[in-house]
Structure formats: C-alpha cells, structure tokens
Amino acid sequence: MRVEETEIFKKYFENLTDRERAVFEGGITLGALFHQFVGTPVSKDNKESLERAIEEAMKNQPCVYDIKVKIKDVGEKYTSLDGRMLDVDLKIKINRTIAHLKLEYIAEIDYPLMYVKELYEE
Amino acid sequence: MRVEETEIFKKYFENLTDRERAVFEGGITLGALFHQFVGTPVSKDNKESLERAIEEAMKNQPCVYDIKVKIKDVGEKYTSLDGRMLDVDLKIKINRTIAHLKLEYIAEIDYPLMYVKELYEE
Amino acid sequence: MRVEETEIFKKYFENLTDRERAVFEGGITLGALFHQFVGTPVSKDNKESLERAIEEAMKNQPCVYDIKVKIKDVGEKYTSLDGRMLDVDLKIKINRTIAHLKLEYIAEIDYPLMYVKELYEE
Amino acid sequence: MRVEETEIFKKYFENLTDRERAVFEGGITLGALFHQFVGTPVSKDNKESLERAIEEAMKNQPCVYDIKVKIKDVGEKYTSLDGRMLDVDLKIKINRTIAHLKLEYIAEIDYPLMYVKELYEE
C-alpha cells in the first residue's frame, strides 16, 4: 500500500478540495524534482538514463499519475544540470480530478516556471 | 521587483483561485526545501546557521510570506540532514489568502509529511 | 574532447603525483555522488534505474574509469535515499595509476565511509 | 570526538601518505559542497547567510581545517545557485601536512574547477 492510501495520511488532507490537493501535491513534486536533480552531471551520453531515472523516482511521490521529463540543450561536453534545461509534464490524480502541471523555462522572465496547465475532471 | 510581480508570471496563474495558488506555491517551496537541503552535514555547531540559511534562502521563492525552520535531534556528532529531522512552518500569501503549511515527521507512518495546516483570509 | 584532456585543465594538476591526482579526483566524485543523490525517492520500482543513472551521470566526471553503484535495503515502500544505503565502487585512472575507491556504510562508526581501497599501477 | 579521530576510521587510511589523504579529503569536501548547494535560491538578501552556512556545514567534514566561501555575481533578482558562482578556499590538515584547495570558475574552459593550489608542511 502506498503511503497516501493510509488512513493517517488521508486525514491530514480533509481540509482541501480535490483541486487544491492536486495542485499541492503537484507543487511538491515539481519543487522536489528541481532541487533534487539540478547539479547532476549530464551530457549526451547519459541524458536519456537521467530522464528516465527522474521520471521513475518521482513516480514514488504521492498521487503522481504520470510524468514525462525532457532535458534540453545537452551538448557533447558535460555540464551540471541547470533548471532551465528541464521540461516536465506532470499529472496528479485525486479521485476524479487531474492536475496537469508544467515546469519549463520561460525566456521572457529568464525563469524556470512551475505552473498548472490544466485542471479537469476525468 | 520580485519575479512573481511581473505581468508575464501572473498570467500563468489566472486559472487558479487564491487558495489553489497558495497551496501550489507552498507545495513547491516545501518540496524544494526538503530536496535541496537533505544531506547537508549538520551538528550542534552549525544547526542554527543552517536553520537561518534555509529560512533566508526559501524567502526568495515566490509568495513566501513567512517561514520558520527547526532541525531536531541534532547530536554532538555530525550527520547528514535527514528529512525526518525537519520541522517547518511556512506561510504563503496570495492577495488576502494565507496558507499555513507544515513539514513534520509523523511517526505513525514513518514519513516526513507536508500538509496544509490552515487556509484563511487575512 | 573531455574537459580533463584540455591543456588548460592539465596545467592545474602539474603539482600532483599520479597517485595524488587519482585520489583527489576520486574524492570529488564520491562527495559529489553522495550529496547529489541523497534524498532521491527510491523504492523497489526505481532502484535499478536510479543505480544505472547514478553510474552514467558520474562517468562524466573527470578521469572516471569505472563505477558500480548498488542501493541497499530498499523496501516496498518508498523512502528518501539515505547515504547509508549506498555501496559504490569507483575506479579513477591517471596515466597508468588506478585508484579503486569505495563508499560503504561502516556500522561500527555508523558512518557512510569514503576510502581508498587500493592504489596500483596497471 | 570527531569521527575521523576514531581508531576504526583511521585504519582505513593507513595506505595513504599524508599528502594523498589531504587531497582525498579535500576532494570529497569540494565535491560535496558543490552538489549539496547548487540549486539553492540566492539573492543579495541571503547571499551572506548562505555563504556562512556553507562554511559552517562543511567544517563538520573530516579533517577540514579552514574554509572560506564566496558567492559571486549575485543580483537583485534571485536565482538558483550555479556552480560557476562559487569561489571556495579550503584547507585540509593531516598531521603537519596542509592542502590548500580551490574551487573557482575558469572562463577559458567554462568550468567550475576544483584543484589543489598548494600542498605544504606546517
């Protein structure tokens, strides 16, 4: 049984709507992903294994329904993973509510932005 | 001007209520804090400087209104900061809505839980 | 060309013997590995993808000749990767000198120790 | 008693000269520092508390004799700490041998380089 399925866990979230819960869990997972993996050595040689490992690791987080990670602008020479290289699509599911969240670099504000792309009922 | 005050930033959040936005930003900041600092060497000698530095660092994150970090169970011997040692109170403010969020270790589920303690209008 | 093969890089290391250089680079890579990945969510489901991704990431670091990562004590329930779960064999090669380094948990001192297992000429 | 003063710890290092040991411990500490703190939110407001907290945290690591951390190119707007912003002087002491190590950005190779500036007897 996953931790989020336990009764003790659930009672901490009775004060939130499904939508609020979905964006809360999504925020945690995006913040966690960014700050866990920024700094990791990456080059063309390990780009794909790192993308898959980030996806698989974050699927452990509560309520993650689906996640797709792309690392952009990777060259021959290795570099430390910068948050601006991350492009993430994350789906969180709470009952029938799905939050589709995004982490992507927004050039106009020079910022790797985390936001909610869509919130819908399945 | 803080990044969250720019018009470009703001338009990404028009699809959320103030409550949803508050818990989303709170989730990001708690997930970020945990995964940034877990692993840091900590002993009685540097416990306080680390607590203050975590607070000051996380105040940079969008919409953080107040934050208090306590590191528990620190002994003479240094150890790597474990998420179960963290006790965090975080307040996020969106217009007049305040989300009071918490990260604390819950022994019954052996889990450092992030949850929303209170959501209220100022 | 890898960064460590450039002339500018090389001139910073003229003051070290091959043995000194080998253990210096090995220390960097072990310290980096530990503090980059501690905290990552891990369960039986993603243990292997994480082990492989850590190996592939750290092969980018200067002078890494071979690396094998094992994550121990992973259960059904996910947890944050703790340094005590890591068992790493790392080989660094400088000209004909090889340093075989180790990161493993030593119960007597309750410490995830990094040390040089063997230093030899190939 | 610090962990490095225990007999069990010491016996793992009998195969190294004092110089080798000094650069090994120095490598660990620089690799650890970089990968622990890269990604931390930093602006003018928290630059100094972060510099001090990094120094104090890393003094826990075995054999650290002195450390000075400077974070460069910090602006009004907050950013994630990038390894290229770090300027670190670290001294490791093993018996009478001191290794003075450096982490600094080298523009010619676009690389935050860790190297041994000086190795001497006190």
From TrEMBL, chains A, B, C, D:
<comment type="similarity">
    <text>Belongs to the archaeal dihydroneopterin aldolase family.</text>
</comment>
<dbReference type="InterPro" id="IPR007181">
    <property type="entry name" value="MtpD_C"/>
</dbReference>
<feature type="binding site">
    <location>
        <position position="114"/>
    </location>
    <ligand>
        <name>substrate</name>
    </ligand>
</feature>
<feature type="binding site">
    <location>
        <position position="25"/>
    </location>
    <ligand>
        <name>substrate</name>
    </ligand>
</feature>
<comment type="subunit">
    <text>Homotetramer.</text>
</comment>
<comment type="pathway">
    <text>Cofactor biosynthesis; 5,6,7,8-tetrahydromethanopterin biosynthesis.</text>
</comment>
<comment type="function">
    <text>Catalyzes the conversion of 7,8-dihydroneopterin (H2Neo) to 6-hydroxymethyl-7,8-dihydropterin (6-HMD).</text>
</comment>
<dbReference type="GO" id="GO:2001118">
    <property type="term" value="P:tetrahydromethanopterin biosynthetic process"/>
</dbReference>
<dbReference type="InterPro" id="IPR027508">
    <property type="entry name" value="DHN_aldolase_MptD"/>
</dbReference>
<dbReference type="Pfam" id="PF04038">
    <property type="entry name" value="DHNA"/>
</dbReference>
<dbReference type="InterPro" id="IPR036839">
    <property type="entry name" value="MptD_sf"/>
</dbReference>
<keyword id="KW-0456">Lyase</keyword>
<dbReference type="GO" id="GO:0004150">
    <property type="term" value="F:dihydroneopterin aldolase activity"/>
</dbReference>
<feature type="domain" description="Dihydroneopterin aldolase MtpD C-terminal">
    <location>
        <begin position="17"/>
        <end position="117"/>
    </location>
</feature>
<protein>
    <recommendedName>
        <fullName>Dihydroneopterin aldolase</fullName>
        <ecNumber>4.1.2.25</ecNumber>
    </recommendedName>
</protein>
